[in-house]
Amino acid sequence: MDIAFLLFPGVTQLDLTGPAQVLSRLPGARVHLVWENLDPVPTDAGFSILPNATFADMPSPDLLCVPGGMGIADVIDNEAALGWVRRAGAEAQWVTSVCTGALILGAAGLLEGYQATTHWAWHDKLALFGATPVHARSVMDRNRATGGGVTAGIDFALALTAKIAGDTIARTIQLALEYDPAPPFNAGSVEGAGAEIVAAYTDRANRIAPDRITRLDAAARRLGFTA
C-alpha cells in the first residue's frame, strides 16, 4: 500500500508523524512524504522534514493523508499542491486528513457531501466546502476518514488501521507504541480547558496567523464553494 502524506511548509509535524508512525506498520505499507520538490520542508516545530517524493513521483497513492497546520492557506493558494491533492484523492482508495488538513481536502472538492471533523477552532469552516461537520476524534464516511486536532491523528490512524487490516493488527500496533494516554491536565478540549485557556490559545493563533480565517473564506469564494 502506497501511503502519501502531503508535506508542506508550516505543517504541524505531529499531524503527520503521529499517523505516519501508525500507518507505516500496516502490512506492505510504503510511506511517501510528498511535496513539489525534495528540499527540506520547515515545520511549525522549528525543524524541517525531508520529503522523499514529488507530486510527479506519486500521482496515484492508495491512501492519501493531508495533515494540517498554519500553512494550509498557502497550500490552498498553491495551484500545483491543491491540484495534486485533487488528482490523488480522485484515485485513492482512502482519502484522509488530520486536523486542518480537512480544509485542504475540502478546498480540493473531496469532502462535498461527506461527514468530517477537524481542529475545534476551525470546525465551523468545514461547511464552507460542502462537508457536514461532526464533533469527534475521528470520523469515517465511506472512504473518507478525518481526524480532529493534532493528537487525534493517532486515534484516527488506529481506527483507519482497523478498517484496513482488522482490529488485531490495530491493537497490536497500539500496544507496540504503548499508546495509553494519561494526560496530566484536563485541558485537551474546549470544555475541559475553560474560557481563559481558550482565549489564550485564540490570541496566540491570531498573532501567528492573523489573516488565516479571511484567507480561507476568500479561497472558498475563489474556488466556487460560496458566493
List the helices and strands and how they pair.
Elements (H helix, E strand, L loop, with lengths): L1 E5 L6 H11 L6 E6 L5 E2 L5 E2 L3 E2 L8 E4 L5 H6 L1 H13 L2 E5 L2 H7 L7 E2 L15 E2 L4 E4 L2 E4 L4 H14 L1 H10 L13 H4 L1 H14 L3 H11 L5
Parallel strand pairs: 1-2, 1-6, 2-5, 6-7, 7-11, 8-9
Antiparallel strand pairs: 3-4, 10-11
Helix pairs in contact: 1-5, 5-6
How many helical stretches?
Answer: 9
Beta percentage is: 15-25%
CATH class: Alpha Beta
Low-confidence stretches: none
Overall pLDDT: 97
* Structural class by SSE content: alpha/beta
- Rg computed from alpha carbons, rounded to a whole number of angstroms: 17 Å
CATH architecture: 3-Layer(aba) Sandwich
CATH homologous superfamily designation: Class I glutamine amidotransferase (GATase) domain
Report the order of strands and helices: EHEEEEEHHEHEEEEHHHHH
Query: How would a crystallographer describe the biggest sheet?
Result: 7 strands, mixed
According to CATH, what is the topology? Rossmann fold
Number of domains: 1
Arrangement of strands in the largest sheet: 5-2-1-6-7-11-10
Termini separation comes to 39 Å
As a percent range, the share of helical residues equals: 25-40%
Query: How many strand segments?
Result: 11
Shape: globular
Written account of the structure:
With about 230 residues, this protein is of the alpha/beta class. The protein has helices at about 15-25, 70-75, 80-90, 100-105, 150-165, 165-175, 190-195, 195-210, 210-220, and strands at about 1-5, 30-35, 40, 50, 55, 65, 95-100, 115, 130-135, 140, 145. It has a single domain, classed as Rossmann fold (3-Layer(aba) Sandwich). About 40% of the residues lie in helices and about 15% in strands. The strands form three sheets. Strands 5-2-1-6-7-11-10 form a seven-stranded mixed sheet, sandwiched between helices. Strands 3-4 form a two-stranded antiparallel sheet. A two-stranded parallel sheet has the order 8-9. A hairpin with a 5-residue loop joins strand 3 and strand 4.
